[in-house]
Known about the structure:
- This protein is 82% helix and 0% strand.
- By secondary structure, it is mainly α.
- The termini are far apart.
Amino acid sequence: MFDALAEEFAGRIAHATAAARALETSPEDVIRASFRAFFECIIATDGAAGFLARNHHKVRSSLYAYEATRNMLRDLSADISRVSANALAPAEAELVARTVISLGLEAVLQASDAEENDSKRTASLVTTLVLDGLNGLRALNKKT
Length: 144
């Protein structure tokens, strides 16, 4: 039952995040749109944040076991490559996408404990974290 619910919910998140970033043209906008859509999907789904918080061990350990999550990873990796003018190797784009997905989950888990939940501010914060790392990766690639 858990896996069926998780797969269905991951599918909704994958659809919402893909739609949100479809027309974006920069890495910053793709990542920010993905985070915002993810957070808004969680907030809009009654009980979702609590479900994730109660089951965080299972969710973390099986995150990429779900087809919907693997599809989301593939699509996000492709979008990151697209807006980065293919400046990243496929493995690097996938690493950035995995970071976005994992960081989004961790932000939701933290937010479920917080008294105030501002999805726009949280999306900006985690976007900045990812982009700073992406900029560091680009600098590293220029050195090699």
